[in-house]
Amino acid sequence: MKISTFFNQIFNVIWARTYWPLCRTYARYLGDKPADSIYRFLCSFQFYKTHHFWPNLKNPSSFTEKLFRRMLCDRNPILTIISDKLLVRKYVADKIGNDFLIPLLWHGVDPELIPFDRLPSRFVLKTNHGCGYIILVKDKKKLNITEAKNILRNWLEENFCLNTYIGSEWAYKNINPQIIVETFIGDGENPPVDYKFYCFHGRVEFLTVHYGRFTGHKTRSFNRNFKPYDFKYDFEQWEGYVEIPTNFNKMVEISEDLSRDFDFMRVDLYNINGRIYFGELTPYPGGVSTKFLPRYRDFYLGNLW
Q1: For the chain, what is the mean pLDDT?
Q2: What's the chain's Rg over C-alpha atoms?
Q3: For residue range 79-99, what is the model confidence (pLDDT) as tens digits?
Q4: Same domain flag for 174 and 212
Q5: Do the Cβ atoms of 180 and 86 come closer than 8 Å?
Q6: Structural domain boundaries enclosing 31
């Protein structure tokens, strides 16, 4: 291991164990109030660490600055509703109907009440109140049910906003945690390709296509006409062929219908052999620690917002 890499890892550990908790403590003090000057100043160090420039939160011009300002200052209750993976189902049904929802098999607050004996051989366990709370069950016979219940119980006790990162993802703060059991819609053993549409004032500007989200995550970006687009996350890109999905124009239409009430929203969809499924609405794509490239595209997209 290179010395620079070693010291960088040490720095990141110290950062996560001291700086992040300090920010979260102040977020708890603020409650549901928009960020004051102290919290904006504290959080700006995380922004600088990720994006390598100090954010202008009073007059933001880049996409990442405006995204960060939303996290720190926008307290519209609709953000909580659309971030709740259970409540958002009604929001989606009211906008585009029930046909695009992944079938719901069960939901509740007690892992002990999950009817595992009545569930199909494949399904998805997750919670409604944050990111990364998901268990893909590809074969129920191989599932350690006791372990799964313990994992779910631990997740339910977390507040994704106040217990992770710098406490800035307010939309998740006031969600009442619940367990969701959904139909597994993946192709064979793998989860489906994830299509994430970036919508500005109800218009799709571009999308990112995600492969292997839980094993070797890679992406590619395309514009609204599914032509290559100069945008990427700061991680590995998919180099293989990407086929335009069946009913792609319908996916664009759905994304624009679901994002019409927002100045910016990311709409996540799946497409299984032409059957379109809603994934989620994401007000904070990339959160606090994902870098967007190239730099000029960051400012171009900020102009669209």
Answers
A1: 93
A2: 20
A3: 999 999 999 999 999 999 999
A4: no
A5: yes
A6: 3-73
d(CA 68, CA 60): 9
Strand partners, 269: 195, 278
pTM beyond cutoff 0.90? yes
Residues 92 and 109 in one domain: yes
The model's confidence at residue 13, banded by pLDDT at 50, 70 and 90, is confident
Please state, in angstroms and rounded to a whole number, the distance separating the CA atoms of residues 185 and 102.
Answer: 8
CA distances, 38 to each of 2, 23, 30, 35, 138 (Å): 37, 10, 10, 8, 47
**DSSP labels, 256-296:** HHHHTTSSEEEEEEEEETTEEEEEEEESSTTTTT--EESHH
Residues 147 and 209 in one domain: no
Domain count, the chain: 3
Are residues 50 and 65 part of one domain? Answer: yes
Q: Is there a single domain that holds both residue 207 and residue 278?
A: yes
Percent of the chain surpassing pLDDT 90: 83
> What is the C-alpha separation between 129 and 156, in angstroms, rounded?
8
The domain boundary, picked from 115, 150, 183, lies at 183
pLDDT tops 80 at residue 235: no
Q: Which of 275, 286, 272, 267 is nearest to 205 (CA)?
A: 267
pLDDT tens for 273-295 read 899 999 999 999 988 788 888 89
For residue 1, pLDDT over 70 is answered with no
Residue 36's nearest CA partner among 57, 11, 63 is: 57
Tens digit of pLDDT for each residue in 171-188? 999 999 999 999 999 776
User: Would you call the peptide bond into 60 cis, given omega within 30 degrees of 0 as the criterion?
Assistant: no
265 inside domain: yes
Which strand (E) or helix (H) includes residue 37? helix 37-51
Residues 35 and 253: their CA atoms lie apart, in Å, by 35
